[in-house]
């Protein structure tokens, strides 16, 4: 009887060699692991990040309140056409 190939499995032979690790790879562009330029701004206390986050939340809350105000005013008092001008006495007014 002929041997059936395994369905859904790939047959892999022995590896011939090892690929170099990325840490040791030689590149034309830059040296792997080389230090970049020093950071321009460093805030180790995290104060700036907290300030920016709080400001963003405050602006977001104000925008949501403005949107809710617009929705509520539209729901409470719908827009109506202006009242027609009164007709002078004795004139025939279109109805």
Describe this structure as you would to a colleague.
The structure is a single chain. The chain has about 100 residues and is mostly helical. It has a domain at about 45-75. The chain is built from one helix and no strands. Keywords: Membrane, Transmembrane, Transmembrane helix.
Which parts are unreliable, with pLDDT below 50 for 5 consecutive residues or more? none
Instruction: Give the C-alpha Rg.
Output: 38 Å
Name the average pLDDT: 78
Number of helices: 1
Number of strands: 0
Span of the ends, CA to CA: 100 Å
Keywords: Membrane, Transmembrane, Transmembrane helix
Transmembrane segments: 56-76
Characteristics of this structure?
transmembrane, transmembrane helix, 1 helix, 95 residues, membrane, mainly alpha
Summarize this entry quickly.
This protein has 95 residues and is mostly helical.
How are the SSEs placed, and which strands pair?
Blueprint: H1 47-76
Transmembrane segments: 56-76
Keywords: Membrane, Transmembrane, Transmembrane helix
């Amino acid at each position: 009887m002929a041997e059936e190939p395994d369905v859904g499995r790939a047959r892999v032979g022995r590896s011939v060699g090892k690929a170099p690790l990325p840490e040791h790879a030689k590149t034309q562009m830059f040296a792997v692991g080389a230090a970049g330029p020093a950071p321009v701004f460093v805030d180790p206390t995290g104060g700036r990040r907290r300030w920016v986050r709080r400001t963003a939340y405050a602006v977001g809350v104000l925008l949501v309140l403005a949107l809710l105000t617009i929705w509520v005013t539209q729901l409470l008092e719908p827009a109506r056409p202006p009242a027609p001008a009164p007709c002078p006495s004795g004139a025939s007014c279109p109805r």
